[in-house]
Write a structure and sequence with these properties.
The chain has eight helices and nine strands. By secondary structure, the protein is of the alpha+beta class. Helix 6 (about 195-210) packs antiparallel against helix 7. It starts with a helix and ends with a helix.
Length: about 240
């Protein structure tokens, strides 16, 4: 038990150290798209892990991992909706219940979903920081504004990527929220139980789909997720008369 706890603490300290030592040499010049998909080219440069065992190679080689982070179209949700999402811990659900009590069950929030598409890696000559600067300059010359160059730790390169994703999301939230607000998508719809307009519009489209032969069960699930079935109950039950 004690041995397992020591290993867990050691791993946590290693991850924390990797986060502290991660830095972005080139940050994207555009925000996450509000109404579409964003694809970001990433280059993660690290010192090879084997240099810890062979000091003769230290500062002579660097590992460059390439890939793409695909950010889906930002989705508007509420605490009520979040409580119906699958795969989260009890602590996460408790947090959302607390948010619901403080800000209300229909307070809007933005959910982001990402997919990592790894392309591969290569070993190149040079110190990691110098290699990162070289790649950054090349991307600048190519005017690749949706690209990022990260210097991280070899063993925890994906942690370095997650740190960037978090920071990039945080830098885009205000921009995305403002665009949604300017289009009136966050306005509460009283006749639809107070959910944001974008959710009410989505439900309307689903009703139209059922009218044209779509599956009413899917519509019922969506109404329950938003917690507004009682506001649409009479209209929904007409499909079965």
């Amino acid at each position: 038990m004690i041995s397992g706890l020591v290993k867990l603490m050691s791993r946590y300290e290693d991850v924390s150290k990797a986060i502290e030592q991660t830095f972005v040499a080139k940050f994207p010049k555009q925000n996450l798209a509000t109404f579409g998909i964003t694809v970001i080219d990433y280059f993660i440069v690290t010192e090879p892990i084997y240099t810890a065992f062979d000091s003769t190679k230290k500062d002579l080689e660097a590992v460059v991992r390439k890939g793409k982070v695909v950010a889906g179209k930002p989705t508007l949700i509420t605490p009520t909706y979040a409580l119906h999402l699958q795969g989260f811990s009890d602590d996460a659900y408790d947090y959302m219940r607390n948010i619901s009590r403080i800000y209300g069950p229909n307070s809007p929030a933005i959910m982001y979903e990402y997919e990592n598409k790894s392309i591969g890696l290569e070993i190149v000559s040079g110190i990691a920081s110098e290699v990162a600067n070289r790649i950054s300059n090349d991307l600048e010359n190519q005017k690749n504004d949706l690209s990022v160059v990260i210097v991280g730790i070899d063993e925890f390169w994906d942690v370095s990527l997650m740190k960037f994703i978090y920071e990039f999301t945080a830098s885009s939230i205000e921009y995305n929220a403002r665009e949604m607000r300017d289009k009136g998508l966050l306005e509460p719809q009283i006749g639809a139980g107070g959910i944001p307009r974008v959710a009410a519009d989505q439900i309307e489209e689903m009703f139209k789909s059922v009218e044209n032969g779509g599956n009413p069960e899917i519509l019922k699930i969506e109404l329950d997720k938003w917690g507004v079935y009682k506001f649409y109950e009479d209209r929904f039950l007409r499909f079965f008369k």
